[in-house]
Amino acid sequence: MKKSLALVSLLAVLAAAGCGSGDAGANTLSFLGPEDPKTFQPVIDGFEAKHPGVEIAYTQIPFDQLNSTLQQRLAAEDETIDVYTVDQPRVSALAARGFLLDLSDWKERVKQAALPAQYDVNEFRGKLWSVPIWTSDQFLFYNKTLLKRAGVTPPSSDPAERWTWERTVEAGKQAQARGGAQWALIPEQIEQYYQLQSLPESLGGGSGITGADMLTPALTTDGWLKAMTWYRDLFAGGLAPRGVGSFQTSPLFTEGKVAFFAGGPWDVGTFGAAGDLDWGVAPYPYFEGGKQVTPTGSWSWGINPASKKQRLAREFLEYAALDPEGNLLTTKASPIIPANRAAFEKYVPTLDALAGEKSRGAGAILTYDADHTAVARPRSVGYIQFEDIMTKTFADIRNGADPKTRLEQAAREATTAWAQLR
């Protein structure tokens, strides 16, 4: 079975590499990304309706193969890619290698249209290289039944009453002791930098990257050490499970085994469909005495400089990112947050109503966090290497490694990996 799946994935990549070749019509735009085609069909339909005779040919590349596929084809100046999705922390690396078209003439338009944290992530060395399509946030979901059994009053959905991580853990322990919860607290992306960055950031530890060129590791600060000690203790104390990977955690919540679950807006739809599960949503926690920080960031879109259809590609990006109608259509098939401010304001009520009373308050949390607590991942040409290093670091600490020793090791690994980029 594994060999068959691997062969299918390989054939998909090879097919994508050959698609949209030179015989594509002048009005056919090639668009690559990792999402299911159904996700982008509404915005494609909307754009094609406004541009009769134009066709957007979308090709899905498996997420774990997208970056390598793009690197190979863009390095070869493959002109059959016109538009492609860009994981926002990778903008700097792609721009530095000449893989993105300069869109700096749109700077002011994008600043005006995008949510506050969604502009800077698209800049590198003073120029704009991509446009934001989506953003994200994290919530604290809770199981009402488990908390009620334990005599715990659930957290409020009001951002002004945001709980601390310390309070959340204590309530989770009570749910384990008296409410029948198997697990106290689980982060959805259990070993991913996207979600865990907020822990040291809340304690003043920074992103882990510093320096004028953002190629100096800063992983041994007090904030990082305290955050990773707390993170290790979460698993060592039996409050969260080992042996479960990122995005494999939500079933534990839907099965009623988890008191508190830190997850994204996409979980609202998933949990809303979970039968009789009684749950609620609250703001993402922070550390006592620390700063309120919430994860953010998602996908932007960019244009291949080798494309022969740059004018049409710009029109497609303009519709999907700067036109509220188009940006809202990118979220129609999936509960993903639009990055365009006007589209965001129309989207918020739909998320609030998605799971009825259970999801009520999610919109107010989204709105507050977008303006006050959202912190994006760092902009560095070395982010790709950094993310890989940190995923392994989090895994080791989660499994019992000494935080100080492992963070020091990660800093050495980053220094070595970045030496060639200076």
Task: Name some characteristics of this structure.
single chain; 422 residues; alpha/beta; five-stranded mixed sheet; four-stranded mixed sheet; 18 helices; 45% helix; 14% strand; globular; disordered N terminus; Sugar ABC transporter substrate-binding protein; signal
Overview of the structural elements:
With 422 residues, this protein is of the alpha/beta class. Helix content is 45%, strand content 14%. It contains 18 helices and 17 strands. A five-stranded mixed sheet has the order 2-1-3-15-6, covered by helices on one side. Helix 6 crosses helix 7 and helix 15 runs antiparallel to helix 16 (362-372). The two termini are 43 Å apart.
Distance between the termini: 43 Å
Largest sheet: 5 strands, mixed
Q: What is the CA-atom radius of gyration, in angstroms?
A: 22 Å
> Which residues form runs of ≥5 with pLDDT under 50?
1-23
Shape: globular
Beta percentage is 5-15%
Strand order of the largest sheet: 2-1-3-15-6
Q: Output mean pLDDT.
A: 93
Number of strands: 17
- Count of DSSP-assigned helices: 18
The helix-and-strand class reads: alpha/beta
- How much helicity do the residues have? 40-55%
Pfam families: SBP_bac_1
InterPro entries: Bact_solute-bd_prot1 (IPR050490), SBP (IPR006059)
Keywords: Signal
Protein name: Sugar ABC transporter substrate-binding protein
Short description:
45% of the residues lie in helices and 14% in strands. It is built from 18 helices and 17 strands. The strands form six sheets. A five-stranded mixed beta sheet has the order 2-1-3-15-6, covered by helices on one side.
